[in-house]
Amino acid sequence: MGSNGLVYRRLWPACMLAATLPLNAARAEEAFEDGPSALSAGARPQKLGQPVTDIHGIDADGAPISLAKFKGKVILLDVSTMWCVFCKQDAAPLQYLYQTYRPKGLAVLTCLTEDVNGAAVTQAGLKQWVGTYHLTQPVMNDASGTYDGVAEKVYARVVGGFPTLVLIDREFKVQYMQGGLDLPAVTAKIEALLAQQAP
Length: 199
Hints:
This protein is α/β, with parallel strands linked by helices. The chain has helices spanning 25-34, 85-101, 123-132, 150-159, 183-195; strands spanning 56-58, 64-66, 74-80, 106-112, 139-141, 164-168, 174-179.
């Protein structure tokens, strides 16, 4: 348990490959085995140090939103699904990070890629997630699709499942990608990135 009373996991027993196969095991298994070759040319796996691949969708109010909206801030992107047990467990700690570091320039954005049935997340689903976990941070869907959407192809498949946490610096480059929330490690990375001078 952390000093703030939150329980965190150092290892990632997250919704890995087996948990990503609730609807179409053959399709999911094939894509994970193929790796980058299964991705379209417009959705290549994200690499550390490279410019961010943007995600577009709507937020819980139905307004258009994207990663690029937060460019210039340090961004913590959470790529999750509504059916993932560990995504649910990480919602409160992510809200804690948002409340703690927002005044210093941190943006926290959750992108829900699938609802409880593996389908696209609607505005109603986004509202449900926000209400259930009492979130004040932005929550969005991925308008490009679910299983084949940008967020899953570019981020979640790189680390192998959900949740996927991505830290983006003020220059809009990816500096950290990890499966699951290791709160001490992510906090240290956030503080280091916030301490850097803005470009």
